[in-house]
Specification:
heterodimer, A: five-stranded antiparallel beta sheet, B: alpha/beta, about 40% helix, globular
């Protein structure tokens, strides 16, 4: 089962659409609530990252009987220092974004905490790819 | 995963009389859990999905859906016959039929004691506030008052069952109180019959098969609409004799209690941020938002299945707005705490906690994830073929429901009446529904 979503940078009103559709799908499949929760937290954070930082992006959620695999590819400024971006509390968010309740600097940390496997690749000036795997059993 | 499913089926208080049903599909269209289908010209219920909300009962044009209550004559198998009456019951009658007159008529019917149901509410307010204040799980705490909502959460929002408050509703507190009083006075419990007048079907199901490891002391449930007719008939035929009614009437009630079953009756007494939401579509919408974590910082939720809460109960006779008006009027005359409150606190405190409500998640495709994934994939393909106008002529409430039924081998693609009609007369069908809608299915076929 594969679900794909197109994300537009700066569209905060639609942020969360992908994670709520994925939630519904996992629920209809009868997947354990604790697994759904981890998937949704990780996906939501990654989705908001695209909205907040990139120009546009695509999310693919692949569900099989063993795992949920999420791939988020964006075109955007990229991340120059990934290690620094992964530090809890580190944020580049503008005041405007913070006022909307985003940009606390916990995004990547939260994704990492909820993922079984987490990969991030970035080319500054081009974009970022995030891969998240969460085991179902 | 899903280990809680199939432990025991729900007890249902709504029943479809097959011989009366005309298969019009009205009930199928309003069911909030899509638990109804039309098969062989009759409405057919999926028992594990039904939450006893009664939406189907409200829309049935031929009264084919009935509430399975207890016959009033069974009260005479007990020496002491206690009737627990909700304030909603009294509020259905016009003002000229006074509270005392109604009580007199009920006493003449054979009840030996009448008690207002919401006497347990005053004590419960403090218990709920304590519970919500000390609750260390995920908030909001959700009220256990409306049994249709409790079932809805069990079936459609199973991850939220731990939010349901582990305290019994006021009806059960009051029932426990009177049972204890008789026991204390040395009356053998087999002589004590406790009866409840219900405004809805969900309460019957909840009394017969309670959640949270609880057993109700209520011996029988009487249909409010039938009792209304009996009282009204007695009044029309004989008038009232107010001198003869029983002196064992416990009508002691507070303004909090009398309002409890109306919208906001609970939430207005709870500290912190508490919300009151009524009617099934609103409740479902709110729970979906809550599940999506769109709603933060709410401490307590009062959720009721019926519009205007119990004033709009399916067995309530008068207009729900008028019922609410009479209740509000009565509340103005009542004290903040009722006379028996102290006694209730002494007797009932130990009875109030219950265990957690167990989840009973709907199995949409299959309990085995591999099969469920295959079926979901297949259903998604079918949805692209189906016309997506939810006409219901296939006997399922929506194209999505038909697709799910097909992949679960409960229906076939031939059930789609629109696709047949297009084959017979494409011009006419396209004139109404457009070419596009039918092109996509021809490509796929």
């Amino acid at each position: 089962m594969e679900l794909t979503f197109q994300i537009r940078g700066g569209d905060f009103t639609s942020a969360g659409t992908a994670s709520s559709k994925v939630r519904r799908t996992l629920k209809e499949l009868g997947i354990d609530a604790s697994v759904i929760k981890r998937v949704v937290i990780a996906l939501y954070e990654a989705e908001v990252n695209i909205v907040a930082h990139a120009y546009n992006g695509q999310i693919t959620a692949s569900i099989d009987p063993e795992q949920v695999f999420l791939k988020l590819v964006d075109e955007g400024p990229g991340i120059a220092d990934i290690e620094r971006a992964m530090t809890p509390g580190f944020s580049t968010a503008s005041q405007q974004v913070r006022e909307m309740g985003f940009g606390a600097g916990m995004g990547l940390t939260n994704i990492c905490r909820n993922a079984d496997v987490f990969n991030i690749h970035s080319i500054p000036g081009k974009g970022t790819t995030v891969e998240i795997t969460i085991q179902i059993k | 995963m899903n280990s809680d499913i199939h432990i025991k089926p729900f007890h249902h208080a709504l029943c479809i009389r097959q011989e009366v049903c005309i298969g019009c599909s009205r009930c199928m269209r309003v069911c909030p859990t899509e638990a109804l289908r039309v098969i062989n010209g009759k409405a057919t219920l999926h028992p594990e999905w039904c939450v006893d909300c009664g939406e189907c009962f409200n829309v049935c044009p031929v009264k084919a859906i009935v509430v399975e209550d207890d016959d009033i004559s069974q009260i005479f198998s007990y020496k002491h016959r206690i009737l627990l009456v909700p304030s909603i019951f009294f509020a259905q009658f016009e003002e000229k039929l006074t509270l005392d007159a109604i009580k007199g008529i009920l006493y003449e019917m054979g009840f030996t004691e009448l008690c207002t149901v919401e006497q347990g509410a005053d004590l419960l307010v403090d218990e709920i506030n304590k519970y919500v204040g000390e609750f260390d799980g995920e908030k909001p705490v959700i009220s256990s008052f409306c049994p249709a909502v409790v079932r809805l959460i069990q079936v459609r929002f199973p991850s939220m069952t731990d939010r349901i408050i582990r305290l019994i509703p006021p009806l059960e507190i009051t029932a426990q109180y009177y049972r204890s009083e008789y026991e204390k006075n040395g009356v053998p419990l087999e002589d004590v019959g406790i009866f409840y007048v219900t405004p809805c079907a969900a309460k019957i199901a909840a009394i017969k098969a309670p959640v949270g490891g609880y057993n109700s002391p209520i011996n029988g449930v009487i249909n409010m609409s039938e009792l209304y007719n009996k009282v009204f008939l007695a009044y029309k035929q004989k008038g009232t004799n107010e001198n003869e009614y029983c002196n064992l009437i416990h009508s002691s009630l507070s303004s909090t209690g009398v309002r409890w079953a109306t919208t906001g009756g609970e939430s207005s007494n709870i500290h912190g941020r508490s919300l009151a939401i009524d009617s099934m579509p609103n409740v479902i919408d709110f729970l979906e938002r809550l599940e999506n974590e769109e709603i933060q910082g709410v401490d307590f939720l009062e959720l009721r299945a019926c519009d205007m809460s119990c004033c709009g109960g399916i067995l309530v006779q008068d207009n729900r707005f008028l019922v609410k008006e009479r209740i509000d009027k009565r509340a103005e005359e009542l004290p903040a705490r009722h006379a028996l409150d102290e006694s209730f606190r002494q007797v009932c405190s130990g009875y109030i906690p219950m265990e957690r409500v167990e989840p009973k998640a709907m199995v949409k495709y299959h309990a085995d994830l591999t099969i469920a994934l295959e079926r979901m994939e297949e259903a998604r393909k079918l949805r692209k073929i189906l016309p997506d106008i939810d006409c219901g002529a296939c006997g399922a409430p929506s194209c999505e429901a038909l697709a799910d039924d097909i992949v679960c081998h409960r229906a076939t693609l031939e059930h789609c009446v629109l696709m047949h009609a297009h084959e017979v007369d494409p011009d006419m069908m396209e004139k109404i529904w457009g070419k596009e809608r039918f092109i996509k299915k021809q490509v796929k076929k």
